[in-house]
Amino acid sequence: MIADAHRKAEKTAVGLCVRSEIVTGSSSAALVQRSADAGLVVLGTRGRGGLRELLAGSVALQVAGHASCPVSCADGPR
User: Beta partners for 72?
Assistant: First the structure.
């Protein structure tokens, strides 16, 4: 699944360096940490959205608030 997502990102972002890795622990903390060496962090969506997700503290909200580079949320296939 990771390899497929990586290939899809490379096809979508032709000419850009796409990196992927599997980490343990907090996903938002890992993304914020890696944002120090990135030009852009692109996050996918689960399709939930809405106020309930924001109140729960979504990864996107945490990363956008603490990242060292711009953050974009990609609205992928549903």
Answer: 42
Q: What is the spatial distance between Cα 18 and Cα 64, in angstroms, rounded to a whole number? A: 19
**At residue 35, what is the residue type?**
S
Q: Which domains does the chain have, with CATH numbers?
A: 25-78 (3.40.50.620)
What would the two tokens of residue 27 be?
Answer: 């996903």
How many other CB atoms sit within 10 Å of the CB of residue 6? 14
Rounded to two decimals, the pTM is 0.69
pLDDT in tens, 40-49: 998 876 655 5
Backbone angles phi, psi at 37, to 5 degrees: -110, 15
Asked whether 27 and 57 are in contact (CB, 8 A), the reply is no
Count of other CB atoms within 10 angstroms of residue 29: 14
| Whole-angstrom distance, CA of residue 16 vs CA of residue 57 | 30
